[in-house]
């Protein structure tokens, strides 16, 4: 396993609780849209075995051509040891990246794409949208639906409706409106549905989509292939 040590070169406050850390891109470090990585703090591998409390699974919110690795995360006032350390890091501090992989690349199959996310999960979809804006081939249109009860909606400069680009963006702050809209979107029986959020959020969305007739192969999750059956084997009640 290769560990890439790199430095923070910029920190942006996306909202009162959400920050994006921009990292120098190490030589030979590559990724594609929809990638996640293991993001580790200095000292995580100082002992006989890695300290898992100093490592988190994070999405990369930038595209490779930006030549900067963006890690967007929510840090609440009451947070874990990892987030507390991360909150106090500054430009120039070192962090590590390893085991980078994409489970949710943009499928270009001449279909409509629906991006369903909760809160900071939107960071996973940011590079997919940017990639689509740069090259829209074989994607009919994209619709993004994000629920965030904090009402501090993220990336509104990118996630804004652009009819000329066949892109629509929608933010809601409550579950009732969110799931009503998911049901409406699921009327497209040929669409591709990407879902990013907590495991509970994934299960709820899959149940709603499957009840509306969406097939498992139309649902994309940011999970390793061996984890997918656990979520997509949802049985419809008779």
TrEMBL record:
> What's the domain of life for this entry?
Bacteria
Coiled-coil regions listed: none
Q: Which organism is it from?
A: Virgibacillus tibetensis
Query: What protein name does the entry list?
Result: Dihydropteridine reductase
Per its UniProt record, what SUPFAM superfamilies does this chain match? Answer: Ferredoxin reductase-like, C-terminal NADP-linked domain, Riboflavin synthase domain-like
């Amino acid at each position: 396993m290769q560990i890439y040590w790199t430095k923070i070169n910029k920190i942006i406050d996306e909202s009162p609780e959400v920050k994006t850390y921009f990292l120098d891109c190490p030589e030979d470090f590559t990724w594609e849209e929809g990638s996640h990585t293991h993001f580790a703090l200095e000292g995580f591998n100082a002992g006989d075995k890695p300290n898992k409390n100093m490592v988190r699974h994070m999405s990369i919110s930038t595209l490779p051509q930006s030549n900067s690795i963006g890690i967007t995360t929510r840090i609440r006032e009451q947070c874990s040891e990892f987030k507390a350390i991360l909150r106090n890091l500054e430009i120039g501090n070192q962090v590590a990246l390893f085991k980078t992989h994409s489970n949710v690349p943009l499928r270009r199959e001449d279909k409509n794409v629906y991006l369903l996310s909760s809160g900071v999960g939107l960071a996973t979809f940011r590079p997919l949208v940017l990639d689509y804006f740069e090259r829209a081939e074989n994607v009919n249109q994209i619709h993004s639906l994000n629920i965030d009860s904090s009402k501090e909606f993220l990336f509104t400069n990118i996630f804004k409706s652009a009819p000329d680009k066949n892109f629509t963006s929608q933010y809601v702050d409550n579950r009732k409106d969110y799931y009503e809209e998911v049901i409406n979107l699921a009327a497209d029986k040929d669409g591709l549905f990407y879902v990013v959020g907590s495991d509970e959020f994934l299960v709820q969305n899959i149940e709603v989509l499957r009840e509306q007739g969406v097939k498992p192969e139309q649902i994309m999750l940011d999970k390793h292939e061996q984890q997918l059956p656990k979520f997509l084997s949802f049985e419809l009640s008779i």
